[in-house]
Amino acid sequence: MSRAAAFFDLDKTIIAKSSTLAFGKPFYQGGLINRRTVLRSAYAQFVFALAGADEDQMDRMRNYLTAMCTGWDVQQIRDIVNETLHEIIDPLVYNEAVELIAEHKAAGRDVVIISSSGDEVVRPIGEMVGADHVIATRMVVQDGKYTGEIEYYAYGPNKAAGLRELARERGYDLSQSYAYSDSITDAPMLEAVGHPFVVNPDKGLRRLAAENGWPLLLFTNAVPLRERLSGLKPPRPTTAAAVAGALAGAAVLAWYSHSRRSARS
Predict the structure, then answer these.
(1) 68 falls in which pLDDT band (50, 70, 90)?
(2) What is the domain extent for residue 145?
(3) Is 119 tagged catalytic?
């Protein structure tokens, strides 16, 4: 018997901000980025909240990620993320998303978070909100350090490909499945299921939703997750290869700083 699933983007769909930008302060405290970079993160978060990141910005973000993370120690990144995850992410979770996830699980559907942020960040958040599976960006690790290469980039068409692969493995009927996202770059993921929804959409996705008659949801009530869920389990130790989301926080900040300098030149 076929089953259905509900696929959720993470940033601005389940949580109110960028999960990658959110880790600027602990990376600074860990000595991975400088003060100037972390100070720019507040404005970068503001820009992201207003307009998101388009395809060109995401490509530049990925390039900076590969350059910055080369040689970083895996254990240090893992420790920083695990020590600060609940403090940083708990207050950002949309109450509406928590309730919607609970509704899908009550209906017998698996819940899957699929995000271009890295597995290091996305998987613990998935455990916090009760997701059954996670699809996220993965980095290559060798001798306990990051090579600067990306094993799998969960973005754009790759999200849809990852979704379909998981559906084959788990026996999901995509025509009966749901997907939720805020960004036009996730159009392939939304088009892959029978029930696409747009959440806090950017201009491009709002226009596409109107053309296709996709329902629109507005999530506004971000509250500490611990106030909504009882009996939360602490996140399990994450694997060495699953670090892209945490590293992307520093990469985004560096990309933003570089973009500002280029614009002024």
Answers:
(1) low
(2) 5-264
(3) no
